[in-house]
C-alpha cells in the first residue's frame, strides 16, 4: 500500500511511518518538520525567505499536494490547521485535497477547533486557560475558536473517510461525529529507544521538559518543585529545562529517575511515552477514561492533576517507597512495548484504513 502522512507532531507520524515500512508499505511524510524540532520528512513543506516570499512558497508547496495525493492509496492528515493558510481559500484547498485522495483520514491530534469548543466544555480540566494566558500572551480567545476556523475544521471532519483520535481528549471532542473511529494509541519505535535499569544514585532525579509552558501546566510543577526543593534538598534533584539539543536532552533523561510529562491532560503525550520506553517512572495523564480509551486496565503511570499539592503528594509518596522505582521502570518499558510499539500500532491503522473501523 502507498501511504501519505500529512503533517507532524513530535514524531508521531515518523514513528508510524517506520512501523508501516517494516510491514512492507511505501510511506511518505509531507510536513514542515514540526517547527524547531525539524523532524525528518520525505516531502518538505517548509519555506525560507522574507515574510512575503516565505508565504508564497508555502502556498505553492501546499497546492502541489493536490496532484501528489493522487498517487497514494491512503492520505492521513494530522490536523486541519497544519495546512491552514490565513489568507487562502482554505475550503477550496481541502475540498480538492479530499476529492483527489482515494481515501482520506483525519487524526484527532493537537489543538483544533473541536478540541477547543467541545473538548473544553466536556473535560473536567484541560490546558485551555493556561494556553490563553501563557502561550498566547493573555489572549481572551484562541483563533481556533473563531467561526471561520470551526467551519473549516467541520468541513474536513464531515468529508473525510474517518476521524482517528490519538487519545481520550480528542475522542471526547469528536464523540458526536458520525464518522468517529476508535482511539489508536501514539506509536513509538522502541528499537530506537534504549532501556536502562532505573537505579537511584545520590538523589532521586525528577525532570520536566520545558516546552509549551501553558499547555503542559508547567506552573503547577514549578510551584511543587519550589516546595519540594526546600523540604528535601538532600533527597531530590529537581530539573525543569527545555528546547535543548537532542544530545543534551538525552543526557538529562539518562540520569533521570522520574519524568513529569504534563499536568493539564488526561493522557500522556509523546514525551511521556518516550520516557516510559526508557524505563523512567512517569507522572502525567493516566485518568480512568484515558485508560479505557486505549483499551488497557492498568498503567504504571502515576496520574497527576493540574494542582501543585497533588504533585507534591505524588512525589512524597514515591519518596516513601523509593525501593519501588526500579520495578516501576521495568513496568514502564513493558507498558510501552504492549501498548505503543510502532509495528503493533501500524497494524491497527492498516486495519482501520482498510475496513473503516477498528480492531
Task: Please give a handful of descriptors for the protein shown.
359 residues; alpha/beta; Rossmann fold; 2 domains; six-stranded parallel beta sheet; 15 helices; 45% helix
Question: What does this molecule look like?
Answer:
The protein is of the alpha/beta class and 359 residues long. It has two domains: 200 residues, Rossmann fold; 150 residues, 3-Layer(aba) Sandwich (Rossmann fold), CATH 3.40.50. 45% of the residues lie in helices and 13% in strands. The longest helix has 18 residues. The chain is globular and about 60 Å long.
Average pLDDT metric? 92
Question: Under the CATH scheme, which architecture of the largest domain would be assigned?
Answer: 3-Layer(aba) Sandwich
What separation lies between the terminal Cα atoms?
Answer: 19 Å
Report the β-strand fraction as a percent range: 5-15%
Briefly note the CATH topology name of the largest domain.
Rossmann fold
Helix/strand structural class: alpha/beta
Oligomer: single chain
Number of E-state strands? 11
User: What form results from the Cα inertia axes?
Assistant: globular
Biggest sheet strand order reads 3-2-1-4-5-6
Estimate the helix proportion, in percent. 40-55%
- Biggest pleated sheet: 6 strands, parallel
Instruction: Please indicate the count of domains.
Output: 2
CATH class of the largest domain: Alpha Beta
Radius of gyration: 21 Å
